[in-house]
Amino acid sequence: MSRTARLAALGAASAAAVALTAAPAQAAQLATGTVVVKVNNSTVATCSSTLSGTKSGTAITVTSATATGCGVPVSPASLPWSGDIAAPASMSFAMSALGCTYSGTLTGGTVSGTVVTWTNQSVSGSGWFCSGGVTVDATYDFA
Length: 143
Prior knowledge:
Blueprint: H1 3-22, E1 28-39, E2 42-56, E3 59-68, E4 75-76, E5 81-84, E6 89-97, E7 100-112, E8 115-122, E9 124-127, E10 134-141
Antiparallel strand pairs: 1-2, 1-10, 2-3, 3-5, 4-6, 5-6, 6-7, 7-8, 7-9, 8-10
């Protein structure tokens, strides 16, 4: 192989390697679960939830989320969220409903196999119709 052909092949291989390492990870379903919303310790909603995004080791990046069956429309806010699903697991989040955006960081999650559980997590609300004393319990299976 001539020197020119070798340089061209090396250049093509280098470009391909850069393209492969620079390609963003494809988002996929990360977890499904249940979120229980409480106001002053009384359950006001139980929602089914799905998280999608990317995972690297135990670090997660959530690029889309759903919450259904809550009784009112709920939509994710301030994506992407980040977290770590190794004990004690943590994850930031923000969800909007009825003119209020509730947000916070779930911390101290327990891990059992692929299931992460957060209990009695305080969240803060911003907007016109926000209730005080809001906590969430969340259980997600990251299988």
